[in-house]
Amino acid sequence: MKLAVFDFDSTLMEGETLEFIAREYNIEPLMKQITTAAMEGEIDFFESLTQRVALLKGAKESKVIEICENLPYTKGAKETISELHKMGYKVVCFSGGYHTATIPAQKVLGYDAQFANILHFKNGEMTGLVGGEMMFSDSKGKMLKRLQALLNVSEEETMTVGDGANDLSMFAHAGKRVAFCAKPIVKENANIIIENKDLTELLNHI
Question: Active-site residue among 7, 44, 163, 198?
Fold first, then answer.
């Protein structure tokens, strides 16, 4: 068995989930500023996560769900996951984003499992609070080590694919470290770099 772990926002999906929601509420520029700083490793991921979610306090749950169910997926994502399955890979999504986006995406893209965070809703609105499995800069690395132990997969049999600084902790435990249209800090820690936004290019490196 082999293991492939993909980031979600700006890797399997074209863009950042919260920015799509923020656009609906006319606060996208501020959201983008915080996201960019976090992905480049300039501010702590947990702090950026809580700041960004807090900006959306009061957003309607029905609208958030609608947006998350209609996100644009990256070119070649579905085809690449299908090919990895044929090669014997288990394919998993690790997202610093939210189950409201990664669960519908799983039905479309076909990955085997997904780990993400949970937006808190009350009375049909976002409370501005968030919890979950991927809230910290080291969350992906810790979860990857657990999966490797559970599946009896070595680091050499593991491939990780991401674009932002919070993906570095999982890069540390993978033989193939793929920077996909990534920030400079991620490219520095990768051994495979893809600059074209087409995930099928990944298959050329396997």
Answer: 7
The domain ranges of the chain are: 2-205
Active site residue 7: yes
Which one of 9, 112, 138, 198 is the catalytic residue? 9
Interaxial angle between packed helices 45-54 and 28-39, expressed in degrees from 0 to 180 and rounded to the nearest 10:
170
CATH 3.40.50.1820 assigned to 2-205: no
Whether 138 is a known active-site residue: answer no
Q: Write the pLDDT tens digit of every residue in 34-87.
A: 988 888 888 899 999 999 999 999 999 999 999 999 999 999 999 999 999 999
- Residues pairing with 161 in the sheet: 6, 178
